[in-house]
Amino acid sequence: MSHPALIVIDVQQDYFAGGLMPLENPDAALQQINRLLAHFRAQGWPVVQIQHEMLSRPGRPAAFFIPGSPGMALHPDMQPEAGEALFIKHLPNSFAGTELHQHLQQQEISELVVVGMMTHMCVDSTSRAALDLGYSVRIALDATATRALSFADQQIPAAQVKTTVAAALHGTFAQVMSTDEVLQQLS
């Protein structure tokens, strides 16, 4: 019988205090990610880490996750253990240009629990792509972090960004719930 895989997206130093792209409350999300990580590891279920490496493009240098920089490094809590996969990506969608889909297929995984950073960017695009590839997705919303955004002279607070993304994804692309709810369903 196949078990769900935990997909941990971009929990990297640039998103924490002192980094080049600090998010709002990344430490609170990290606590919840660690709870899920501990559960999956205790069960012996698959854990996949995703690490973003930003590539410079003509006229547009990388702003963060610069190759080889301290900010690109995974958070110390996120070091993969033996047998856990790590994929480097260059785009928001964790499936794009990586072997993630093939890896999950080889393990006959059809269910994903998606967590990480940023809620509105890589968590969102990965979850949408997962549906297209036939996966069933749960997102532990409190195990994600984002930041405030602006558009057309409007400021959108991080909490509102997160809630809006959750509302857009829930029911169609994923089941969006709390870490407690995910753990309850997995028990």
UniProtKB/TrEMBL annotation:
One Pfam family in the UniProt entry: Isochorismatase
InterPro entries per record: Isochorismatase-like_dom, Isochorismatase-like_hydrls, Isochorismatase-like_sf
Organism taxonomic ancestry: Bacteria, Pseudomonadati, Pseudomonadota
Organism, as annotated: Proteobacteria bacterium 228
The entry's keywords: Hydrolase
Occurrences of domain Isochorismatase-like (ranges): 5-160
Keyword rRNA-binding: no
Entry protein name: Cysteine hydrolase
Gene3D superfamilies, A to Z: Isochorismatase-like
Keyword DNA damage: no
Domain of life: Bacteria
Any GO molecular function: hydrolase activity
